[in-house]
């Protein structure tokens, strides 16, 4: 039996989609090549010419550590809240409320990062001082709250909270769409067995959406890793490597450090900043590759919609 002829529109769309995919790969490879070429002089430069007269690895390591730490705090705070919001919108909220609530959450992604930064430095930072002192007094035995608590509130804890609010729409959107795709057959079968609404969610919705939740959280992590202005406005960085989230000693982040130092840098210091950008590029790429791998490994449940 002969195959039906492929229509011209289908061939044009397939060609355009293929060209778009190849273009993205070429651009990504070009960015990587540019970063490597521009960062190479910093790898071969004398230590005295590098920022703070440190070895390049010793200079970048605290920045990479702070970048990962702040983004991790954001994901730990945002992911549970995003799952709860997505479950409420898809399974609990009335239909007339679910639509506007979902739209409101999505609109949070349109707020410029500098607005979040101003909110963090003007409102959240002063408010967090009392919390930081309480954490130091009651949980000071943990390395995260060892103190001494800063009196300004410009801490990694505040940065993590602000980044968590920023990535909340991303994680919520992914979780919401995954929960909507839960096969109706599974939910109806659980309901027929006498399961409550929460038991239906626990036995069908959450297992089905587990990989989607993880991938959404990792996409949010990639967003938090590259945040610049909000972190630059809030964080008072000291260049230290520390797990303490409430003290005046804070690890900086790569993106914020580049934004603050690049205009005044020259020579080898510019190449050093680009080298730190290369590290950030590698971290972000690794996070997105892992997220894509999780999405690709997702196993669909059989059942009717």
UniProtKB/TrEMBL annotation:
<feature type="transmembrane region" description="Helical">
    <location>
        <begin position="101"/>
        <end position="125"/>
    </location>
</feature>
<feature type="transmembrane region" description="Helical">
    <location>
        <begin position="12"/>
        <end position="36"/>
    </location>
</feature>
<feature type="transmembrane region" description="Helical">
    <location>
        <begin position="270"/>
        <end position="291"/>
    </location>
</feature>
<dbReference type="InterPro" id="IPR051124">
    <property type="entry name" value="Phosphate_Transport_Permease"/>
</dbReference>
<dbReference type="InterPro" id="IPR011864">
    <property type="entry name" value="Phosphate_PstC"/>
</dbReference>
<dbReference type="InterPro" id="IPR035906">
    <property type="entry name" value="MetI-like_sf"/>
</dbReference>
<comment type="function">
    <text>Part of the binding-protein-dependent transport system for phosphate; probably responsible for the translocation of the substrate across the membrane.</text>
</comment>
<dbReference type="Pfam" id="PF00528">
    <property type="entry name" value="BPD_transp_1"/>
</dbReference>
<feature type="domain" description="ABC transmembrane type-1">
    <location>
        <begin position="64"/>
        <end position="291"/>
    </location>
</feature>
<keyword id="KW-0812">Transmembrane</keyword>
<comment type="similarity">
    <text>Belongs to the binding-protein-dependent transport system permease family. CysTW subfamily.</text>
</comment>
<keyword id="KW-0592">Phosphate transport</keyword>
<keyword id="KW-1003">Cell membrane</keyword>
<feature type="transmembrane region" description="Helical">
    <location>
        <begin position="155"/>
        <end position="175"/>
    </location>
</feature>
<keyword id="KW-1133">Transmembrane helix</keyword>
<dbReference type="InterPro" id="IPR000515">
    <property type="entry name" value="MetI-like"/>
</dbReference>
<protein>
    <recommendedName>
        <fullName>Phosphate transport system permease protein</fullName>
    </recommendedName>
</protein>
<keyword id="KW-0813">Transport</keyword>
<feature type="transmembrane region" description="Helical">
    <location>
        <begin position="224"/>
        <end position="243"/>
    </location>
</feature>
<feature type="transmembrane region" description="Helical">
    <location>
        <begin position="56"/>
        <end position="89"/>
    </location>
</feature>
<keyword id="KW-0472">Membrane</keyword>
